[in-house]
Amino acid sequence: MTKGQWFRMLIILLIVWTVSSLWIDNSIILPRPDEVFLTMYHQALSSTLYYSLMLTIFRVFFSLSLSFGLALFFAFLFFRYNKAAVYFHQILLFLRSIPNVTFIILLLFWVNRELSVTIVAFLLLFPIFYQNIYEALCEIQKTWKDVLKIYPQGFKTRCRTLYFPLLKNAVVTSWITCSSLAFKVVVMAEILASVSAGVGSNMQFARLNVDLVGVFAWTIWLLICVSLFNKLLKNILFRIYE
């Protein structure tokens, strides 16, 4: 979507939101935009906002980096030893079939709240990174199969000269896809695990106080944060692969 299309969509949403809130006339059910924006203004004057956003961003980035690093390692490992890949894929399929809420409940019995957020995010993001990278490696191998037969190279040489350079699309797509998903799962985990600080914990605090204005305000801050994070991430990724 172009900037103009985004702007028109936001204007339409704002009009619908304003009309609906005036018609309902109950801030507990649907607050007015001016109430939410005023709350956001007061939040912007407090250090709590910036600390919470930075803490959530750190959790997201750490979970993304950990998931990508291990996914890259295991993707190359099982691509190299593909006979064992079948068993590993079955394990991943089993893990992906378990609801995230179940993981959070179980992890709260075994580890502390902070660590449970990271583990839950990892369990969701790792399979996505792994599958995208592994399938990209298989596709590269299939495409260049004849060339590799004519000019055989060792596995390390193929990784350096063929696989790593051609993984650009898979890596960029995976990071962009997982970045938005990471914010969703980290904030959800922050809420369910009741961590001490973060966007999710503030949303949970607002919910417990029946403060829907606060929930809306934190949601909008989160959307702004996700948008800026994704834009910065895209710029960094494309600079790396220029």
UniProtKB/TrEMBL annotation:
Q: What domain of life?
A: Bacteria
Stretches assigned to the ABC transmembrane type-1 domain: 49-233
Mode of membrane association: Multi-pass membrane protein
Q: Where is the signal peptide?
A: none
**Compartment list:** Cell membrane
Sorted keywords for this record are: Cell membrane, Membrane, Transmembrane, Transmembrane helix, Transport
- Transmembrane as a keyword of this entry, yes or no, is yes
Q: What is its main location?
A: membrane
Transmembrane stretches, start-end: 7-29, 49-79, 91-111, 117-134, 170-192, 212-233
Instruction: Write down the Gene3D superfamilies for this protein, in alphabetical order.
Output: MetI-like (1.10.3720.10)
Its name, as the record gives it, is ABC transmembrane type-1 domain-containing protein
Source organism of this protein record: Faecalicoccus acidiformans
